[in-house]
């Protein structure tokens, strides 16, 4: 949006907070430049474009408001927590920020193998915070610092963080609850999360292996072994279940129930 002719104009409306809580931290927000404002504009255009009635538009607003309200408490607490975490280097004792201190400790434990673990950290952040965005805000600096300490490519490791955060949305509690409600299986969230752990594990292991190979190259190393292992498992599953048709057990059940 910075390249658009009205981008700079939208950024002129800003809200600023200087010296938050007596520190050197400053906060600035440009509400007209946020994606949410664009969505509101598109919503208003849709009202006229689809010739909606006031009742229909009110129902759409009500449904959207319920979703926003359900997600708001997590965001209201997690975003300030992230800011405290990132700006923790502003302290009277002159300590490093928490992400960089964690990065130093973790890099000493994992060494060159960190790219394999990086996606799992992103997934953990998304699971706890309920958002890939919050996970990236919280752990990107940590991932960047760890990559520098172990001699890896920081851009690749931060990308693995984002990949893991996206995967972690599969087990994010409020996402699972919303999906369960939409599918009519409320109360089965625990079962759903356990089943989703299988594709999540594949996703994280494969991404970690690819990240290791991207940084250290192909060879007899843990990254190459993980990638080959995942591919072999997938090939075996495709051969086993693709020929036997065991992946469609529900068809037999539906046929049986229809005969009844």
TrEMBL record:
Membrane topology, record value: Multi-pass membrane protein
Main subcellular location: membrane
Location within or outside the cell: Cell membrane
Keywords for the protein's UniProt record, in alphabetical order: Cell membrane, Membrane, Transmembrane, Transmembrane helix, Transport
Membrane spanning residue stretches: 32-50, 114-134, 196-215, 221-242
Cited function: Uptake of L-lactate across the membrane. Can also transport D-lactate and glycolate.
Family: Belongs to the lactate permease family.
The protein's name: L-lactate permease
Organism: Shouchella xiaoxiensis
């Amino acid at each position: 949006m910075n390249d658009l002719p009205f981008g700079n104009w939208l950024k002129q409306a800003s809200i600023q907070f200087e010296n938050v809580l007596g520190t050197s931290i400053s906060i600035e927000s440009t509400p007209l430049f946020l994606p949410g404002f664009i969505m509101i504009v598109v919503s208003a255009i849709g009202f006229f474009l689809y010739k909606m009635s006031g009742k229909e538009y009110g129902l759409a607003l009500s449904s959207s408001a319920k979703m926003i309200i359900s997600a708001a408490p997590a965001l209201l607490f997690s975003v300030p927590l992230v800011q405290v975490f990132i700006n923790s280097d502003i302290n009277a004792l002159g300590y490093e920020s928490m992400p960089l201190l964690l990065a130093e400790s973790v890099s000493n434990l994992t060494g060159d193998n960190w790219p394999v673990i990086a996606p799992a950290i992103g997934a953990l952040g998304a699971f706890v915070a309920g958002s890939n965005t919050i996970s990236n805000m919280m752990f990107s600096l940590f991932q960047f610092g760890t990559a520098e300490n172990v001699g890896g490519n920081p851009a690749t490791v931060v990308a693995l963080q984002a990949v893991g955060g996206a995967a972690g949305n599969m087990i994010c509690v409020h996402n699972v609850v919303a999906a369960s409600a939409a599918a009519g299986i409320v109360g089965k969230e625990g079962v759903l999360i356990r089943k989703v752990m299988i594709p999540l594990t594949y996703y994280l292991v494969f991404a970690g292996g690819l990240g290791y190979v991207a940084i250290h190259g192909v060879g007899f190393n843990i990254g190459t072994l993980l990638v080959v292992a995942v591919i072999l498992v997938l090939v075996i599953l495709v051969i086993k279940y693709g020929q036997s048709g065991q992946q469609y057990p529900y068809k037999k059940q539906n046929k049986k129930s229809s005969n009844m």
